[in-house]
Amino acid sequence: MLLLTTLADMKAWITARRKEGKKIGLVPTMGYLHQGHMALVTSAKRDCDAVVLSIFVNPLQFGQGEDYEVYPRDLKRDSQLAQEAGVDVIFAPTVPEMYPRGKQKTFVEVEKLTERLCGASRPGHFRGVTTVVTKLFNIITPDYAYFGQKDAQQVAVIRRMAEDLNMNVQIEVLPIVREADGLALSSRNVYLLGTERESARVLYQALEKAQQEIAQGEKDASMLLKVMTRMIEQCDKAKIDYIEIVDAFTMEPIQKLEGSCLIAMAVYIGKTRLIDNVLVEV
Amino acid sequence: MLLLTTLADMKAWITARRKEGKKIGLVPTMGYLHQGHMALVTSAKRDCDAVVLSIFVNPLQFGQGEDYEVYPRDLKRDSQLAQEAGVDVIFAPTVPEMYPRGKQKTFVEVEKLTERLCGASRPGHFRGVTTVVTKLFNIITPDYAYFGQKDAQQVAVIRRMAEDLNMNVQIEVLPIVREADGLALSSRNVYLLGTERESARVLYQALEKAQQEIAQGEKDASMLLKVMTRMIEQCDKAKIDYIEIVDAFTMEPIQKLEGSCLIAMAVYIGKTRLIDNVLVEV
Questions:
Q1: How far apart are CA B36 and CA B275, in angstroms?
Q2: Which of A72, A97, B206, B277 could disulfide-link to B152, CB 3.0 to 4.6 Å?
Q3: Is the pLDDT of residue A102 over 80?
Q4: Which chain B residue shows the shortest CA-CA distance from A250?
Q5: Is residue B264 part of a domain?
Q6: From the CA of A54, how many Å to the nearest CA of chain B?
């Protein structure tokens, strides 16, 4: 496995693979890899001849007062995991390599879909995501790119961006990978201290409860939101950022469940902001 | 020469050329071709194995009350000119083909460089330009793309966009082509009625005057602007939208001429808004 850190090296490698007619898969990450990322790699290995895993903690997608500085980083451990999973190249550029002229002046923005949920809590976040993903797509020119359903809104936004801008990449989305007790895997789970880890179960417990209600015929979004809110509020350490039920493609809130619905939430456990969601087909 | 109108046909043609290892040049236009466009084609023919000329009057880059509806269109005449110039494909998609889902939700924006000059007079214009050019770049994946210096701010914006987003295309810029009396060629010159055509000479006359002053040692931007403004104001039919002297790359106004300076103006002749500029190396 190669570790490349410059655009020039990355582009040269891609050009060589293109000449060999290889299908290229990209798994864009911020590193501190977990089994969720590994599931993306496994899928990429199946579809493609060469797999690039990018590791870049993108300053553009972090807001003021967010965790950019302390976001966990461990390239050595990541390299080991990536190698074991059969990644061909880790692309780990520096910030000046990605934003060489100081402040980036060009941005890719998706409207409407970014207004609610994490878009409302984290202004500018999705603009940072779509801009860096566009850059990575242009650098690596992947045939396929892999994203986790854990970031459900990001998935909807990137799909829409790729369609709207006629990007030559197929977006593949893989299900959330969870711990045995239901907690969705996240690099940020490392922030959970002591009993917070147990409290963090409440996100998926609430989502499971909603799914049970839906299985029993409940279709009223406000009823479901009430049940979930009550459950989470019973947990001392939990503070709700948002819980919403939205159309899975447009991210518009829905009153009565129908079609592809996304139940999504962001909840603080202590100081750690966790997100989780389930996709429900009604 | 082929005339293609769908994305599918265009992409299939590109894929076939790529398999042949052909270098592709793109000349993006809004049609109603003139010798300025033809100079772009000539240059593309020289650099590339296959030349695509796109014709698309892009609604996204026209503001309310601008000339989108009446912008001159003549595909038959354009096809003849393109064929004679050796264009391989005209790509002339319909609006629904380019914006299939109604309102486009994804936009590419370049900040700062778009704030002044035409960006100030035409809010949203450059966002429309950068978005459609990104789409065309993704559809056609050109190795080279050709733009005219007549749209000097557009050139600066697109160059910056291509760099900032790591686009895999070389931007080539060709000088303004002028009529014998100095009027810069523009599809919009067709709007000029009767004596307006003669009045339209005043734009380049003012720019020439400024160049003479600079040749004689004048470096003070406000002095030059004063001289040009006075000249244009003497013309009954002319109404200045803006005259500015800016850094040719950042589009920031400059007081004392130094380096690559752009003297740019937009002037209404009757109801027709014309733009012109000269690049001055000091």
A1: 14
A2: B277
A3: no
A4: B105
A5: yes
A6: 15
